[in-house]
């Protein structure tokens, strides 16, 4: 060993990039499990279902047929065409295949969009609680996140008037995620129309509509922001196969946008990857063509678990929770528990509460600070009924025993 230390060579970007609290909590749960502890992890947002067999079969068949080479960087022409048809039929969005860029997951699609639109001096409005990656990615691009918050009493939806008041000449993008991770909130058509009216009044403002949970909707209507009058030209629509089709590990997502943005997203993507895996794209074609029976079956299982989780959380002292119309997350507000004690452990923050739930009770959750909300914790109910029941029983007992 020469003693050379490369750590000081890391770029400022690398030094400031954070892997995120979710990954840290998931890892802490795995570490405890590896040491023999009985830990129930409700951290990571991924379906516990296997990918439907017809999609797996399509992938192996595609490999056997030689779809093992580079695909075009923005995506295969037939998948882009099939997605244009899907977006028209299911979402009322009229995109041409050229408007659609296929990426290695919705996460990369979002990164492509942010890198295409945002640079130093640009402000991006985030509606907290929000998916943690939005803020990280905007900062990574050199932009400035402007965080607006809504609490459980507002259904976790920032009123449009507050959004309108936060827009400055530097605001370029509003991040809209409906159904929302981590809260499960869903924007109604009327709420979206009110936002569209605000957006219409600004000539350098766009919306990134992240619709990745579109198929995990229990109540209400799925409205695509870009389908509202005049909004198609103002919207980057992001979606993917991870959640609805239980395909997280396949890494396939996409973004659809007006041509200049779509072309820029393609250029961003070709800098960091040569595009998405070819046989996965062929399997995605099969996923789209195969109907939605499997998607609906999984959604109904999540609905059952949603009811179970809501019932249990509502019965817990010190926990406030509203409706969960979509996604597989519960985001209970636990502000009444903050400041209370279990022996020497003081729950002065939601991080302290989440650490204690993990270490003392073997339940891994994610503190709301990861989502820009310091009074809640997130539980993923994409877990077995049995695990959920055990975790909720432990949690009820733990909260009831808090002192102070
Ligand atoms: C709101 C939201 N958008 C995007 C993603 C990323 O999805 P993908 O697995 O397709 O990258 C996630 C994943 O957790 C998410 O919760």
Brief characterization of the structure:
The protein is α/β, with parallel strands linked by helices and 404 residues long.
Task: Give the helix/strand layout.
Elements: H1 12-16, H2 21-34, E1 40-41, H3 53-64, H4 77-91, E2 100-103, H5 106-117, E3 123-128, H6 132-140, E4 144-149, H7 160-166, E5 171-177, H8 189-200, E6 206-210, E7 235-240, E8 253-256, H9 259-272, H10 278-289, H11 293-314, E9 329-330, E10 341-342, E11 345-346, H12 350-361, E12 363-364, E13 366-367, E14 377-380, H13 385-400
Parallel strand pairs: 1-12, 3-4, 3-5, 5-6, 6-7
Antiparallel strand pairs: 2-8, 7-8, 9-14, 10-11, 13-14
The protein binds pyridoxal-5'-phosphate.
Pyridoxal-5'-phosphate (PLP) is lined by residues 45, 105-107, 131, 177, 181, 210, 212, 240, 242, 248, 253.
Any overview of this molecule?
This protein has 404 residues and is of the alpha/beta class. The protein folds into two domains: 7-50 and 294-400, Aspartate Aminotransferase, domain 1, CATH 3.90.1150.10; 53-289, 3-Layer(aba) Sandwich (Aspartate Aminotransferase, domain 2), CATH 3.40.640.10. Helix content is 40%, strand content 13%. The chain is built from 13 helices and 14 strands. The protein has helices spanning 12-16, 21-34, 53-64, 77-91, 106-117, 132-140, 160-166, 189-200, 259-272, 278-289, 293-314, 350-361, 385-400; strands at 40-41, 100-103, 123-128, 144-149, 171-177, 206-210, 235-240, 253-256, 329-330, 341-342, 345-346, 363-364, 366-367, 377-380. The relative contact order is 0.17. The mean pLDDT is 95. Bound molecules: pyridoxal-5'-phosphate (PLP). Pyridoxal-5'-phosphate (PLP) is lined by residues 45, 105-107, 131, 177, 181, 210, 212, 240, 242, 248, 253.
């Amino acid at each position: 060993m020469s003693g050379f230390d490369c750590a000081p060579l890391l770029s400022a970007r690398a030094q400031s990039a954070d892997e995120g609290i979710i990954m840290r909590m998931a890892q802490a749960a795995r570490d405890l499990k590896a040491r023999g502890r009985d830990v129930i992890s409700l951290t990571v947002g991924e379906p516990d279902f296997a990918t439907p067999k017809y999609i797996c079969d399509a992938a192996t068949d595609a490999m056997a047929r030689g779809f093992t080479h580079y695909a075009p960087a923005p995506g295969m022409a037939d998948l882009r065409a099939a997605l244009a048809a899907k977006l028209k039929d299911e979402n009322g969005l009229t995109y041409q295949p050229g408007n659609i860029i296929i990426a290695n997951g919705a996460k990369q699609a979002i990164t492509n969009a942010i890198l295409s639109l945002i640079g130093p001096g640009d402000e991006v409005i985030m509606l907290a609680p929000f998916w943690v990656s939005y803020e990280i990615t905007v900062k990574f691009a050199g932009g400035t996140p402007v965080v607006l918050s809504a609490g459980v009493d507002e259904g976790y939806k920032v009123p449009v008037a507050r959004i309108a008041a936060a827009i400055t000449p530097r605001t370029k993008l509003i991040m809209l995620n409906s159904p929302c991770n981590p809260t499960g909130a869903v924007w109604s058509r009327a709420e979206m129309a009110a936002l569209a009216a605000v957006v219409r009044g600004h000539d350098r403002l766009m919306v990134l509509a992240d619709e990745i949970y579109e198929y995990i909707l229990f109540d209400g209507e799925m409205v695509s922001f870009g389908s509202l009058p005049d909004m198609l030209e103002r919207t980057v629509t992001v979606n993917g196969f991870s959640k609805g089709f239980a395909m997280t590990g396949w890494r396939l997502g996409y973004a659809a946008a007006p041509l200049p943005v779509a072309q820029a997203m393609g250029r961003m993507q070709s800098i960091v990857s040569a595009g998405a895996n070819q046989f996965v794209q062929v399997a995605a074609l099969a996923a789209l063509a195969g109907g939605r029976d499997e998607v609906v079956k999984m959604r109904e299982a999540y609905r059952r678990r949603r009811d179970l989780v809501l019932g249990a959380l509502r019965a817990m002292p010190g926990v406030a929770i509203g409706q969960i119309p979509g996604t597989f997350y519960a985001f209970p507000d636990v502000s009444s528990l903050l400041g209370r004690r279990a022996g020497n452990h003081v729950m002065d923050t939601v991080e302290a509460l989440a650490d204690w739930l993990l270490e003392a009770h073997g339940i891994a959750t994610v503190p709301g600070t990861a989502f820009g909300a310091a009074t809640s914790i997130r539980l993923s109910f994409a877990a077995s009924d049995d695990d959920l029941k055990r975790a909720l029983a432990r949690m009820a007992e733990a909260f009831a025993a808090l002192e102070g």
